[in-house]
Each structure stands twice: as C-alpha cells, then as structure tokens.
Amino acid sequence: MRVISGDRRGFRLKGPPSRMTRPMSDKIREALFSSLHSLGVESRYVLDLYAGTGSIGIEALSRGALRATFVDHQQAACSVVQANLDHTRFSSQATVICQSLDAFLRTHHNSYDLIVMDPPYADTDIERHLSEISCSPLVQSDSIVVLGHWPRLTISDSPGRLTLLRRRCHGDSCFSVFEIAEELTERGPDDL
User: Fold this and answer.
1) How many other C-beta atoms are found inside a 10 Å radius of the C-beta of residue 10?
2) Contacts of range 11-15, beta carbons closer than 8 Å, 24 or more positions apart
3) What burial class does residue 54 get, using C-beta atoms within 10 Å of its C-beta: 0-12 exposed, 13-18 middle, 19+ buried?
4) Residues of the chain with pLDDT under 70
5) Cα–Cα dist 192/179, whole Å
6) pLDDT, tens digit, for every residue of 37-54?
7) Which end of the chain is flanked by fewer CB atoms within 10 Å, N or C?
8) pLDDT at 80
9) Under DSSP, is residue 164 helix (H, G, I), strand (E, B) or coil?
10) Distance of CA 178 to the CA centre of its chain
C-alpha cells in the first residue's frame, strides 16, 4: 500500500493491524480520487471514517487537503493510522480519534468538505449511518460523502439528505459518491 499521488507520492504505508481490517486498495483509491477530480471536488477538510490504515485521508492530504480527521474504534487501527501519519509527515495536519462511529456522531460537530466511509462489508448499519451523517453538523451544503462497499450491497440512491452522484465498481469493491441534496424551498405567489 502506498500514497498514489501528490506531495507524498510513493510513500509506503503500514498495512492493516489485523485481517479484520480491509483497506481500500490502491487501484480503488486511485479510481475514487480520479472520480472526485472529474466531479470538481476540492477537499480541504477531510473526515476518514473506519480509517483502518488512514490511507484515504493521507491520500487526500497528499493531494492538497489542509486537515484530516481519522476515526476508528479499534486501538490497533488508530496506532497504525498514527504511524502512517508520522511516516508521511502529516501528523501536524491530522487528528486521530479512537471512538465508535455512533459515539463520534453524538459528540463531534465540525463540518467537512469530504467524508469517506469504508466500513466492513458485513456492517448492517451502513444506510442508517449515511442518513445520520447527512442530517448532522458534519456536512454543509457542498459536502461530498463517499461510501466504500461491496457490489452486492443494495443502497438507496438518496439516503437521508444525500443524492447519488456516481457509483463505480472494480472487481469486488465499489464506491458511491453522494452530495447533499439541495434544499427545496416552497415558492409563494410573490415569487412567480
């Protein structure tokens, strides 16, 4: 596993702390960031949920993001993320939070330009978490939310306030890119 592009291109990253952690492959990460670039997404503040090794947030930092927050509930994963941040010299631009996603959603209120979730494929709460994120202070009107998932996962094109922009699959891995849906306001007779 390595940083694909940007300032830290080619830096090797420590692998997952256990077989339970399945980081997004270099090929999928490259396809994801190419898709984000083609959509005109510029991420300054990044939230990497289910961070695992931190490879997604570190890739964003290498490509110019100002800050990244990494969240994982496993202490071993948090240690690997911190080691990878130290190795790539991004520690000063990052925060590692060792906490469950549910606890993080209850206690954190900063907003992010890009939120990436790459949960275990067996996670049964994916759509609920997407909906909760879409209605939380973590997002703003121009936030992008990315979900890494397996091809057989059936997920709504509009969970919560999110609207699907793009879905790509490569082998047994997929990612879906969502944006916050525009709020529709009712128009009165004076607006016609």
Assistant:
1) 9
2) 11/62, 11/87, 11/88, 12/87, 13/53, 13/54, 13/55, 13/58, 13/84, 13/87, 13/88, 14/53, 14/80, 14/83, 14/84, 14/87, 15/53, 15/80
3) buried
4) 17-22, 122, 182-192
5) 28
6) 999 998 899 999 999 999
7) C
8) 96
9) strand
10) 11
User: What are the φ/ψ torsions at residue 41 (nearest 5 degrees)?
Assistant: -80, 125
SS3 166: strand
User: What pLDDT, on a 0 to 100 scale, did the predictor assign at position 49?
Assistant: 96
CA triplet 99, 108, 139: central angle to 5 degrees?
Answer: 115
- For 113, the token pair is 């330009």
- The tokens of 78 are what? 């948090």
What Å distances lie between residue 54 and 17, 22, 181, 186, 191, CA to CA? Answer: 12, 11, 28, 42, 48
- Note the pLDDT of residue 132: 94
Cα dihedral sign for 110, 114, 120, 126? positive
What's the token pair of residue 37? 């670039």
* Residue (of 128, 123, 186) closest to 160 by Cα position: 128
Neighbours of 108 (CB within 10 A): 17
- Write the DSSP assignment of 56-108 as a string of letters: HHHHHHHTT-SEEEEEES-HHHHHHHHHHHHHHT-GGGEEEEES-HHHHHHH-
Q: What are phi and psi of 143, to 5 degrees?
A: -70, 145
Neighbours of 20 (CB within 10 A): 11
